[in-house]
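User: As part of a screening pipeline, I want to sanity-check one entry by hand. Below is the sequence and the SMILES for fe (ii) ion. Please return the complex as structure tokens so I can compare it with the automated output.
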Amino acid sequence: MDRKAMTNEENYHFDVAGYFIVPGVLTVAEIKDCNQALDRLGAVDGTLQCTVPSCTPLLALRDHPVLVYYLEQICGEGFRLDQPPRLIGLGAGQTEPLLSEGSEWQDWSRAYRQHNGIRFCQGVRALWALVDVKEDDGGLVVVPASHNSSVDAPQELVHGTDDMGLVVQPVLQAGDLLLCASSVMWGMRTWQEKGPQRLFECGYISAEVRPSTETEITGSESTMPEWTAELTPVQRAVLHNPNRPYPPPVVHSDGKTTRLAEKPGIFHPSTYTHNPDSGIDEKEFFHWDLCGHLVLQGVMDANWLEAANEAIEANADQVSTGGSAAGDSKPLAGTGVGRSSMGEPWKLPTPHGELFQRMIAHPALIQRLNWIMGSGFECMLCSAFLSGKGSSGHSLHAAGEPAKVTNHYRQQNGRVYSEYVNVAWQLRDVTLADGGFVCVPGSHKVSYPMPEGIRTCDDEMELVRHVEMKAGDVLLFLASAQTHGAYPWTGEQNRRMIFFQYRSRNLYVP
Ligand SMILES: [Fe+2]
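Assistant: Here is the complex for your manual check:
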């Protein structure tokens, strides 16, 4: 590698999603040598005993110069091997797919954090694809952006009973290198191909953090100096032991006496307790914080939907048609049909205006905005997006970077803080075939500039997500912090979306 630093696209992808793919690192010959080495080993899932000479091609992956280059960027100089080479797969006897816990990191030794312009990625998993992994092949799955989550993951997500539309199976070609932050939620799905999966993994940690139990030298206390034999168990538990196992011993204290816990573990008290009476749906809370958007399903009933659609049709003279919002983007340009909209449908004459006025403070919306923004939010505007087939999309805009007063987002002590929230009521079903709203989930926490390919959708980097919805659903998204836009409208029926913007009590814009 002759580059001095990762590209902005690589940094952006890693920061938004917690992983990125370096394509085509291995040559055909290298892939073949590695697969033959695995064949000779008779390798199945699990740690590989790479001690025989025929393992040389596999050991070369562990120290591959391209991998070393990226590890120095991500983990920092002095990174160390922590997880010896292994083939990942469903463990023996594991039939139920599970995800790693993720959620609020309490383990700084494997955490991901951007602070004061510095990236701390304390653990990295390097996965080499030695066979192709196509869409729906199964195998490794991840929850993108979960390395930046500080909210406990819902148990249904962890246990695989509800993937919440958040679980992604990366698509890889033989020879690709997948680099993944250790704190990204991950799991294994049943491998659907006939041949073996052949994802070869090594784990690395940064220089100054604790190694995993597997690589740690564990053993007796023989290296403790002789004089320590006279210490109490509590004193010995606290005194530095170069061979201390993990998890470490726990010493409790009431301020007057100390007590050694029966079992080692982690004891880390908090001043806060979980509040089951908050009125917040925990899946919604996790989804909002992880992605920066949320869909409330079925808020409008059939009668209201029908009446609202009729109101739009009855006031066709209020529809105006403008130009493109795609800017210089070719993928978002459409076929030149103008974008149609209706200003302030809440002002339509009786009986039509009321159908939109009741959206302003609908209970389902107020309940969410209270925890998303805190009370005191104001509804600033309303318009109807009514574009027809062939009209342009909207180039992607808004981001968490650069930080501004208006795009502030934070989750702290169980509260989320959001300053601008857009609310889009769907009067018709929206599928991928129709086009419409797209976003970059997780981009409200990003620390790198939005790449040009994302803005124009010329290179979506597998980060741009189209959100499918049903008529009657309501979409909420972080207007100024989550990168969003729209695909050209390609549906046979015109778009029917009623758009509102809410501003928090914290902002003042004359
Ligand atoms: Fe926008």
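Points to compare against the pipeline: The chain has a mean pLDDT of 92. The first helix runs from residue 8 to 17.
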